[in-house]
């Protein structure tokens, strides 16, 4: 039985940053809208990520490794005032790494918890502008690759353009990546999303973006393309599904998503 010399350390960052800057699921790019004073939103989302990459075995020979990560995440948003929301995200993750039919690594547990504030500071001529600072609390078990072991932060500038038949969202962000595995500590993010209202209860969504690769040995940044649908059978209920594809080798190959959102 062979052993793997090295598992890419970027897996840890994918776990830690998975809960930063999510919008209406399945979009990655956030929107500038807030809940309104006293209103609550509860999101329960799940996803399965599939990725393949090359490593070296004990003899230095290349070996294809397949990783599969599943996540169940709950996010609660509360409107402190009309223009300010507070959010907490608690993720539970399962990760399996395989070579062929053999699984040599499997872990699960609660990952790092995210706390965020969204401040809608300007509305003008159909444009909305918001700032969204956040931190991640190092509650995930670092021995299980479920957390960074350190507190990290982020800051995003979000712009939304509201239109009759849909909306556009632009998100520009900075992520602080404190780590002990010799990764980059300052990460940038840029993404653009669109929503098209097909009928009153149905929206088609698309999303594209790029984020700096934390690996100091790689110059290839992480880029993705996403498509999905949001169905709203009632005013206080959204049901969604989406598929995210990696456009570069440093991004996860495929992510399959689904979720439900309740508004109170």
Sum up the structure in keywords.
3% helix, disordered N terminus, mainly beta, 12-stranded antiparallel beta barrel, 264 residues
How would you characterize the overall build of this protein?
With 264 residues, the protein is mostly beta strands. The protein is built from one helix and 13 strands. Strands 1-2-3-5-6-7-8-9-10-11-12-13 form a twelve-stranded antiparallel β-barrel. β5 (113-124) and β6 (127-137) form a beta hairpin. The radius of gyration is 19 Å and the shape is globular.
Q: Care to give the gist of this entry?
A:
This protein is mainly beta and 264 residues long. Helices cover 3% and strands 62% of the residues.
Beginning-to-end CA distance, first to last residue: 54 Å
- The helicity comes to under 10%
Largest sheet: 12 strands, antiparallel, barrel
Summed up, the domain count is: 1
Mean pLDDT: 88
Class derived from helix and strand content:
mainly beta
Order of helices and strands: HEEEEEEEEEEEEE
Proportion of beta-strand residues: over 45%
Q: What is the number of beta strands?
A: 13
As a whole number of angstroms, the C-alpha radius of gyration is 19 Å
Poorly predicted runs of 5 or more residues:
1-16
Number of helices: 1
The 3D shape can be described as globular
């Amino acid at each position: 039985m062979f052993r793997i010399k090295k598992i890419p350390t970027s897996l840890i960052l994918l776990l830690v940053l998975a809960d930063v800057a999510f919008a209406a699921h399945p979009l990655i790019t956030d929107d500038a809208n807030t809940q309104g004073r006293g209103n609550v939103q509860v999101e329960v989302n799940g996803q399965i990520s599939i990725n393949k990459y090359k490593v070296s075995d004990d003899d230095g020979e290349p070996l294809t490794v397949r990783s599969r990560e599943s996540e169940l995440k709950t996010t609660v948003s509360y409107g402190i005032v009309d223009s300010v929301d507070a959010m907490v995200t608690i993720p539970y993750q399962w990760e399996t790494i395989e070579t062929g039919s053999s699984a040599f690594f499997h872990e699960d547990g609660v990952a790092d918890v995210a706390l965020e504030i969204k401040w809608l500071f300007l509305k003008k001529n159909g444009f909305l502008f918001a700032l969204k600072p956040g931190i991640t609390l190092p509650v995930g078990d670092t021995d299980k690759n479920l957390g960074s072991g350190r507190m990290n932060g982020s800051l995003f500038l979000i712009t939304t353009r509201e239109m009759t038949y849909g909306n556009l969202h632009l998100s520009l962000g900075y992520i602080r990546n404190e780590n002990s595995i010799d990764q980059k500590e300052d990460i940038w993010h840029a993404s653009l999303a669109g929503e098209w209202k097909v009928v009153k209860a149905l929206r088609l969504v698309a999303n594209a973006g790029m984020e700096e690769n934390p690996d100091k040995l790689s110059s290839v940044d992480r880029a993705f393309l996403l498509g999905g649908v949001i169905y709203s059978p009632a005013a206080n209920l959204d049901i969604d599904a989406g598929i995210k594809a990696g456009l570069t080798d440093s991004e996860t190959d495929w992510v399959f998503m689904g979720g439900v959102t309740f508004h109170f």
